[in-house]
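Re-running SET domain-containing protein/zf-MYND domain-containing protein to confirm reproducibility after the cluster update. Everything else is unchanged from the original entry.
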Amino acid sequence: MEDLPSALRDFGLTVSILPEKGRCLVSTRDFYPGEVIISQEPYVCVPNNSLVNSRCDGCFVSRNLKKCSACQVAWYCGSSCQKLDWKLHRLECQLLCRLDEERRKFVTPSIRLMVKLYIRRKLQNEKVIPTTATDNHSLVEALVAHMSDIDEKQLVLYAQMANLVNLILQWPETSIKEIAENFSKLACNAHTICDSELRPLGTGLYPVVSIINHSCLPNAVLVFEGRLAVVRAVHHILKGAEVSISYIETAGSTVTRQKALREQYHFTCRCPRCIKVWQYDDIQESAFLEGYSCKDDECDGFLLRDSDDKGFICQKCGRTRNKEDVKKLASEVKAMSASSGYNQGAISVYKKFENLQRKLFHPFSICLMQTREKLLQLSMNLEDWREALAYCKLTIPVYQRLYPGFHPLLGLQYYTCGKLEWLLGNTEDAIKSLTMAVDILRITHGTNTAFIKDLLMKLEEARAEASDKLLPDDAIVVS
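Result of re-run:
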């Protein structure tokens, strides 16, 4: 079996060690936007099944499913997926069948993922499943667990989960301590598998992709084609540069992003965005994303606390907003967000909530954008396409600010906008929006996926429809 450096050489990559970062992937040639840097099948993966929602263990689809008749845990959409998964599930099924029905209810996707991890290691050791340089358990062993950084409460949880896994396996060579450490590895290194529109489907461990470090201003993006993890360049990556992706939602202030990274991944980011923390540009960005609006409704300036801490001064027009007024509105927003009606998703309540937020937050506020996103979804569920489009258009400027360049979330928002415009007969606007979507998503998703082909077909249909509208009623088309 060739070693990992030799295998990565074919991709134009090498593994390097950086101070304070550890291992990373570095390019040995130039990569250009849209180019695949590396792709990898999961070492192990599991769909996010629950008591009410299930997906196929093989391809993660949610239609035409049949439950495994023996263990009553795994689901398959057909015989092909069942056969592909059989080498691994055959042993998993035997182990799960030993559990009584009550205990089987506690076998969550996380527990299954860990059980599969040990089964795959066993089957590879026994040569039942082949190993390669990019598919072997030594790559899992090399992943960092961060056990010393985990608080006691989390350690207890891992120990409880490890105890259930140990009960399922009943293998003398495994220990609860080792299993708990592997749970910590999964928490730091596993990836959420999403569909083309970034909706979560399951969880997978991709040991080579996990070597890629985080940046809040990444030069690559991770997307999934089924279960296949695909890393594509979104900027020109020069030979010798480190490849980076984002581990977290990058919409947020530096302080918010840093907190999320410390809590889940146990490191402090020092990317080009994060090194500006507490500089004027960073303070301004935080005030836009998480701060308050100017007292003047026509002003889009950002607010900073005054020196006496009695109010907030608009940095554009100089008006002062009283601290007590802000606190009163903030309390109302907090109270409404915690109310049962808000949580139940009644559209009328969300509209009141959005109206209250507009009085408090800056127009580029993430909180305001998230509420409008919810209103967009609720309007679409009610098939109120005109209102859905109105909310979608309100989110676009915020998306443009939060996700500059080739970001899949911005492309998908243009895609939603274009579909709604086309549905409402605004063909010219739809063409513009769908074109923007194509320009971004062909870079992040590639050009050969079914999703992009469908998007390109929609764009061509919209263009054809627009051309037909330009023809006079009595025009004769000669074929």
